Amino acid sequence: MKMFATPWVRTQTGGTTKAVPVMPDAASRIINNAKRPVIAVGAAINDLGDELVERVIKLHEKGIPIAATAHSVKFFERKGVRDVYEVGIIELTNLLTDPEWSGVDGSGPPDLVIVIGINLDLTNQTFQTLKNFTDIPSLSISRYFMANANYSFPNIDDEIWLLYLDELVWKVKERGQ
Amino acid sequence: MSKHEKIKIKKLTSPLLNMGDVEIEFGKIEDDWEEPQGPTPKPGVVALRNWDRRLMERYEPFYTPVCDMCCLCSYGKCDLTHGKRGACGIDSKTQQARMIALECAIGAAAHGAHSRHMVEYQIEKKGRDYRIDMGLNIATEAPIYRTIIGERPKTLGDLEDGMDYAEQQLQHIVSSLHTGMEGDFKDYESKAMHAGMLDNLVMEIGDIAQVIGYDFPKGESDVPLSELGAGTIDKEKPVILIIGHNVVPGVEILTYAEAYEKADRIELAGICCSAHDLIRKNKSAKIIGPMSEQVRFIRSGMADVLVLDEQCVRVDLLEEAKKVKTPVIVTTDKIGLGLRDRTGDGADQIVDDLASGKEPGAMILRPEKVGEVAVKLAERVFPTRNKLRTIPDKDEIKSEAARCVSCEECQRACPVNLHISAALKDAKSGNFDSLAELRERCIGCARCDSACKKGIKPLSLIEGASDYIIKEDRYNVRVGRGPILDTEIRNVGPPIVFGEIPGVVVFAGCSNYSNGGREVAEMAEEFLKRRYIVVVSGCAAMTIGKYRDEDGQTLYEKYPGNFDAGCLVNVGSCLTNAHILGAAVKIPHIFGRRNLRGNFEEISDYILNRVGAVAVVWGTYSPKALAIGTGLNRWGIPVILGPSGSKYRRLYLGRKDKEEKWDIYNARTGEVVNADPTPEHLVYVAESKEEAIIEIARLVMRPNDNVKGRQIKLAHYIDLHKRYYGTMPGDLHYYIRQEGDIPMTMKPEIKAILEKKGWKERVIPDPTLVERLVWKKKDKEDEKDKKEEGR
């Protein structure tokens, strides 16, 4: 069944393309198929207390490197997670436009950018840059449908969002296995 | 300089001729300014293109489109997504750059038209020959003008020359935006920078004209505090509210009220920069706040007459004013709102028509008449209007909230994604706290009102729930002092250039804050406590005045107004941003002994490499702010934007990991050396207040910092990083050039980090990006020239 979603911010339509709305199962397959995914995590990751941070750490434990933007690094630090790549979302997006960039862990440029917990304007603008000036696919696992990503969770409330993330964590395979 | 000179002959008697009352006017006379003319007086659109490209080699334009299409001509819409080209051949990067150039041109034109009007008005009042005297402590009266125009303006009439130049240049820039013109994004960026530079110039011209014409403060640091906030308004008096940026009508209201001894009987208040300028004339006027207060204040019914001038005036204010029976006077040719031009009519007739409600407002283009009509009208309507308001009381809020169907369209329309729907649910059950809490972050745009399919006005409900907050809206702001004194520059020039004053941090721009205005005050205080120089203007200057510490003091009460370490300078309105840049321009001139005259590239190169200044525009929205910022970038000053700034579409980002980007000439030796990556970016967007603070500490570093200066800057950077991120910065190896740069108390820890990173010592150069400014080379060339002359 084909899903339909409209951007949460109705004006964030961009142009002639629109993200494919995905449920956790499809999102996990997109992640599992990627060789070098990275998850960009913004300062709003703490908006629901530990709930979101803990789920992101579980994804990280499955081998997905974290690019911690703005002051989100301190939320990981508090949980004892220190192997995060500290970078501004704007800097990260700029690096992603460079095909020669060695990536957050030196293994080469990412082939999937997953975004969560970043200011809505900045999230949208990040997807706009990736869409227009790179070949790297993007996936939003925010609770808002982001039309300028390639794939995005639909608009959901906080409760459903946490359930979606739980399912995602469960279905994402550990890297190297 | 070239200027107009007049000679008057009262009476001449000679054997051949008898004459009297003769006035002879000369068009142009050369000035006696001993400073040699530099390479680029009145630069044309491409005169500084090489400088711009040099900047963009290091700070590559980074694009983040708002729209993937171009709809500027009827070839389109054209889809430019992912490498596609439009019917004219344009690609997405070039289209983004074109839009940037357009916005900068709009911004420059808005300030330019305002300044042109101000110059003409002051000439009408004071005469073309009225001398520019900025006071005893300012000899460099117009640093931007001198650098760009290559002349010294001595009179009001001279300023017209600068305006002529800017207007002509703007026409060329705007023409390049037509379909089938520029095809290179960097060339469009260069044009955007040109427009930005023109914007900086016309702002300086406009403010000089009003400073001397109205006798505004001329850089005095002990300017008084003025009242700020809706809670300061005396509702027992008729209230005249001015909104906009051109203070001329406001001053005429003040003048009329004073002349007829009515000043104590009316309240004159303002929103946006006209209010800033009004208090420079008379501190008894009041500032309500920035643009975000416009709709709220009008709905509160407190304004008995509304006077609009230009820029950042919401275009639906007439409709809002009608609902509370507030008559509206529009005063410039920029804003008509469909109102009848009554400039030629008698003041009393206009007052009759507006007071009776026969007409909702009037256009009056003579400021003196605005003064008379506004005062008379306010007095007339005050008893009958009875402060009619459209802000609901608690019962009305409850019943309105009960109509909400929780569709969340209000939240989806809200630029800051406020949870309005949830707050309405609480209000429905009689809990108004959630609604009131929204006010802190609400930017007052009223998009929620438009989005509601049920016709609920969430903005008014938020306002009604916040009644108790509004009563406490009583703060203060230091009156805008205008320029920075030459004497202050003499004192702080050396410690700024060597880095011992860790930086000059500017908070400017609009009130489109993504997380409330408090963050601006918090950022400002963080750097004030650390003895940076903090300078504010415009909406940001109002915003930071609206927060008190636990002892009940505002930042203006806590920190003095000098341009010195640990001080808080409010320069004033939008136009006065020119004085902030002017201070940066004066440093190479007064301390660095560099000529300003027609010498843009050298001055900008000096600022970029030596003056640790950074501007923060946390609530961006306007094309004017973009123009100011893009101008600052051309002068070598980095700018940090809040999250909404990402929708300006373009940033200039450096790459510290690319060593080759940071090659620079060592002016002492002529060698190309690899410098530290400072300042790292020219325009950057920070996601959060915390990130902005870290970025400020990073972007004030300059290659010219001496060891002591860099130590101080790094100590702050590390301390802030630990405080806000909880970690040691991972990029210290980029900024430590020599061991001496390492803050003393952290040496062992940092040396261990450097060792892991394979750090190598770097030269601290006498930095310049411009080859001709290499001393050795220049000396050799001079020798060569002399030899050739000898032959």
Features:
heterodimer; A: 177 residues; Rossmann fold; seven-stranded parallel sheet; globular; B: alpha/beta; six-stranded parallel sheet; 23 strands
Strand content of chain A: 5-15%
Average pLDDT number of chain B: 95
Order of helices and strands of chain A: EHEHEHEHEHEEH
The dominant shape of chain A is globular
Number of helices of chain A: 6
Q: In CATH, what is the homologous superfamily of the domain at 31-214 in chain B? A: Carbon monoxide dehydrogenase alpha subunit. Chain M, domain 1
CATH architecture verdict of the domain at 31-214 in chain B: Orthogonal Bundle
Helix content of chain B: 40-55%
CA(first)-CA(last) distance of chain A:
30 Å
Q: Can you tell me the overall shape of chain B? A: globular
Describe the main β-sheet of chain B briefly: 6 strands, parallel
Report the radius of gyration of chain A as a whole number of Å. 15 Å
Distance between the termini of chain B: 34 Å
Flag low-confidence runs of chain A: none
Query: What's the pLDDT, averaged over the residues of chain A?
Result: 96
* CATH fold category name of the domain at 31-214 in chain B: Helicase, Ruva Protein, domain 3
Tell me, what is the CATH class of the domain at 31-214 in chain B? Mainly Alpha
Q: Which superfamily, in CATH terms, is the homologous superfamily of chain A? A: TPP-binding domain
Give the biggest beta sheet of chain A: 7 strands, parallel
Going by CATH, the architecture of chain A would be 3-Layer(aba) Sandwich
As laid out across the biggest beta sheet of chain B, the strand order is 9-8-7-10-11-12
